[in-house]
Design brief:
Length: 482
């Protein structure tokens, strides 16, 4: 199958979030199992700085409103393609600065969406599937139904749109309609209009042959007003074409038996190395504090935001830490959250370690060294942290939402089954109850070892997910043929 993954970011080239992991990992897995998969993304400054790419000698002219932009096409490994337009993409960040989004993001991704289709033609690559991701490529399915409707080159091309996080929709002023290049008749409630603005994600929803999200539970949740961010109505009209497929994790990168970042390696057959990692992490984060060795060690890695439930962590901290537990936090996010976490660290200097930013080595060591991984998310489309944690034998304590429900088996004390601890109400009381239950199991070494073994035996490799995507692609092609 000829597959084109269209994404605004992908590992290892450029990353701001989970979208990059999914796009890059799927591309890698599809080629591994025998498909002809290409990926295309903008040629950002960080790619220019870190990768040696080939200039294909191809130039593309793309009109965006009254302006005309030129693009050059570069490649890497003959299956990764980059659209180079320094005026739009030669910047420090992908979408904006801490002060806000780039003001010309609509122009940048109108241009990129048109380039995706033009590059296919220049390369004479006829995709069976164009797999679009989030709002940044939401215009591609719409263009195939409008500007390229009668283009014979794409007559057999079907489209899939993956919604990684419906909270990010790509909203722009109505005046940008002239830049998109389609008629004003599409600016209506059944089209791409959204409360007086243009909605790029909605453009993809109404036009793609298939829509999918990154977990089955999240696919159900976004059909409800509470979780649909205003798009639940239009999604309900498409519900027979909405699927949920759990993300995987890269088993080459996340493998405790081969992880060179760790002081000791281990597997579910022999977890002694995890104890070495735990002891080493405590020493690095808290010094030679013997009292820490026998108390539960908790970890958080990722974006420090309200969506991730950090307000629950802050509220629960006094009770949680008074039990003797230690908490290690790595990440960055909202300034307000940063401020509150700094206060927490000041109030509990021997019990809280806070690192604002990102450190790949420390992340690996936290996943391996802590006992419990906290994910009290307000909503979570899929989540990667809980899967990485379980791969390393670290038990998640998480809220029962989105992909967390689909990946964590709630602990059953009667038969000692499960891979983590789930709570339902979004309150710090419910969170604390789950932590209390986790600590009770921690105090029984036999139960805890059994739980660690359960987590490490779970299969979160990309192979299963990739096969489900191929099945979904085949269904999209059948729909397109009709």
């Amino acid at each position: 199958m000829n597959i084109l993954i269209a994404s605004s970011e992908a590992v290892p080239f450029a990353k701001t979030g989970g979208l990059a992991d999914v796009a890059g990992s799927l591309h890698k897995e599809f080629n591994k199992i025998g498909h002809n998969a290409n990926i295309i993304l903008p040629f950002y400054r960080r790619i220019k700085q870190n990768f040696i790419v080939n200039d294909l000698g191809l130039e593309i002219n793309v009109p965006v409103g009254e302006s005309n932009f030129k693009a050059k096409v570069f490649s890497y490994n003959n299956n990764c393609y980059f659209v180079k337009c320094d005026e739009l993409f030669d910047r420090d960040e992908l979408y904006g600065t801490p002060q806000g989004d780039y003001e010309d993001n609509s122009i940048r991704f109108i241009f990129f969406s048109r380039c995706i289709l033009e590059v296919c033609k220049k390369l004479d690559f006829k995709p069976d599937i164009i797999h679009c991701n989030d709002w940044q490529t939401g215009l591609v399915p719409l263009y195939l139904k409008t500007i390229y409707k009668n283009d014979y080159f794409f007559k057999d091309t079907a489209t899939v749109l993956t919604i990684h996080n419906i909270g990010y929709q790509g909203l722009f002023p109505a005046s940008d309609m002239s830049k998109i290049g389609i008629g004003w008749e599409y600016f209506n409630p059944d089209g791409i209009e959204f409360y007086g603005k243009i909605n790029f994600l909605k453009a993809g929803i109404i036009s793609a042959d298939i829509i999918n999200t990154v977990s089955k539970t999240y696919a159900e949740e976004i059909l409800n007003e509470e979780s649909g961010f205003g798009l639940d109505g239009i999604l309900r009209t498409k519900k027979d074409r909405i699927f949920g497929i759990i993300n995987g994790i890269d088993y080459d990168e996340w493998n405790p038996s081969k992880d060179n970042f760790l002081p000791a390696k281990y597997s579910y057959k022999d977890i002694r190395g995890k104890l070495v990692c735990r002891k080493d992490l405590i020493k690095k984060m808290f010094g030679n504090n013997k009292d820490s060795e026998n108390k539960p060690l908790l970890g958080i890695v990722g974006r420090l935001s309200a969506q991730k439930g950090m307000d629950l962590v802050i509220k629960a901290a006094p009770v949680m830490l008074s039990s003797g537990a230690r908490l290690i936090i790595l990440g960055k996010g909202d300034e307000y959250i940063h401020s509150e976490l700094k206060k927490m660290q000041k109030n509990f200097p021997e019990k809280v370690s806070l690192t604002l930013g990102f450190d790949d080595r420390l992340a690996h060591n936290i996943y391996a060294g802590v006992d419990f991984f906290l994910m009290p998310s307000k909503y979570e489309p899929c989540g990667l942290g809980q899967m990485i944690a379980m791969r390393y034998g670290t038990v998640p304590v998480a809220r029962a939402t989105g992909g967390l429900v689909d990946t964590i088996d709630d602990y059953d004390p009667l038969i000692y089954s499960g891979t983590g601890f789930l709570f339902h109400d979004y309150s710090h009381y419910a969170f604390l109850n789950a932590i209390k239950t986790a600590f009770c199991v921690y105090n029984d070494s036999r139960k805890m070892k059994n739980l660690i073994s359960n987590t490490m035996k779970k299969d979160f490799s990309w192979k299963n997910s990739a096969e489900q995507y191929i099945d979904m692609y085949n269904y999209a092609i059948k729909i397109r043929e009709k």
